[in-house]
Design goal:
Blueprint: H1 12-22, E1 29-30, H2 42-50, H3 64-78, E2 88-91, H4 94-108, E3 114-118, H5 124-131, E4 135-139, H6 156-160, E5 162-168, H7 180-190, E6 194-197, E7 220-225, H8 226-229, E8 238-242, H9 244-257, H10 263-273, H11 277-299, E9 312-316, H12 324-335, E10 337-338, E11 340-341, E12 352-356, H13 361-371
Parallel strand pairs: 1-10, 3-4, 3-5, 5-6, 6-7
Antiparallel strand pairs: 2-8, 7-8, 9-12, 11-12
Helix pairs in contact: 1-12, 2-10, 3-10, 4-5, 11-13
């Protein structure tokens, strides 16, 4: 067996384009990464400094307050449950959870070695497979759609080896929505756990927010983060909920590994999950930015539709540019706008760039001024 070779971090090459944008008056407008710029509620920040939980080790599974807030939120937002508190557990943000799930599940099912994941997606699904020494097999989107999984296209030989099927709706980077009920049914029929990354659920524009737990908890796990919902990316708190056996196994392994959300972060997370008003305000901000920047780019010769969910514009590369990287470089030079070429999210993304509307309106208005009229 050859040694593992660590690939370049996907966004390092994008960061180099930022130097081009920084040369413009006012500097770079960084829309390449989905890092929130807006403040969390004051009550959440206050909870970080007043929990009194700094001295002792926090519960790996999550405090009763955090788990209870998660249960209440799932019922309030999705009509699910109530999910038993023992079927909910905390994670240190969801990126580490996504990356570690294949490794931990392989302890449970060592004969299986395949991770099924969306063909155009967040890179960590495939990287988690690589870090676990597993095969990563891409699943195409639903025909004619930007999201969802065409589970009918999965080869049965790959299904027979599958540890997990990853779902992501609303999808990063495309903003598409999937049929989570059909994905759950496919997994249950074959005994394959379906893990649903739902970190953008609060920013569902085409209808109400959805969760795979609405189809029942058997064989499925929903994964949620407060990074996007509550602008708490730096606090690193999320949770997973669903099938009791899966949740309990992962909770136990993670406890042995010493994976714990810090106590003050758990206290802040419980406060954030109990507050829906700040999320409504954040939804309004993102929808305003999506609508504004879509109009700016369309008038500049880069037509783009609003997504069904999430806070990304998935912009087709016009014929004037050779590829997504040349488009990204030109936008950096002319508009100071830093975007992510779509091939960072899989081969199927090569004809697109992703624009994260995580900058305040005054920064997006600067992009509009720089682009002026037509190209």
């Amino acid at each position: 067996m050859s040694a593992f070779e660590l690939p370049p971090y996907p966004y390092d090459r994008v960061a180099a384009l930022g130097k081009l944008a920084d040369g413009l008056p006012g500097g770079v407008v960084d829309c390449s990464v989905g890092t929130p710029c807006d403040p969390p509620p004051d009550s959440v920040v206050a909870a970080l400094s007043s929990s009194g939980s700094e001295r002792g080790y926090p519960a790996s599974a999550g405090s009763p307050a955090l788990r209870g807030a998660a249960v209440d939120w799932l019922e309030r937002r999705f009509g699910v449950g109530p999910v038993p508190a023992e079927s909910v557990a905390a994670c240190v943000g969801t990126k580490e959870f996504v990356a570690s799930v294949p490794h931990f599940l392989r302890l449970r099912a060592p004969a299986r070695d395949t991770v099924l994941y969306p063909a155009v997606s967040y890179p960590t699904y495939a990287m988690g497979a690589a870090l676990a020494g597993c095969r990563a097999v891409a699943v195409p989107p639903l025909p004619g759609r930007l999201g969802g999984l065409d589970v009918g296209a999965i080869d049965e030989s790959d299904a027979a080896r599958a540890l997990v099927l990853w779902s992501n709706s609303p999808a990063n980077p495309t903003g598409g929505l999937g049929d989570m009920g059909a994905e759950a049914a496919w997994g249950r029929d074959r005994g394959i756990p379906v893990f649903s990354d739902e970190c953008y659920a609060e920013f569902t524009w085409a209808g109400p927010p959805r969760s795979i737990l609405q189809s029942g908890v058997e064989g499925v796990v929903a994964v949620h983060s407060l990074s996007k919902r509550s602008n708490l990316a730096g606090v690193r708190v999320g949770f997973f909920a669903g099938d009791p056996a899966l949740v309990e196994f992962l909770r136990g392994v993670r406890q042995h590994a010493g994976l714990m959300v810090p106590g003050p972060a758990q206290a802040a997370g419980a406060v954030a999950l109990a507050d829906d008003e700040h999320v409504a305000r954040q939804r309004a901000r993102y929808l305003e930015r999506l609508t504004f920047l879509a109009g700016v780019l369309t008038r500049a010769g880069c037509p783009v539709a609003l997504p069904d969910g999430g806070f990304y514009l998935w912009v087709p590369v016009p014929e004037e540019w050779a590829d997504a990287w040349s488009m990204a470089e030109d936008l950096a030079r002319r508009a100071g706008l830093l975007v992510s070429p779509g091939d960072l999210y899989g081969k199927g993304g090569a004809g697109f760039v992703r624009v994260a509307v995580v900058q305040p309106m005054e920064r997006l208005e600067l992009v509009a001024e720089r682009l002026g009229g037509s190209r």
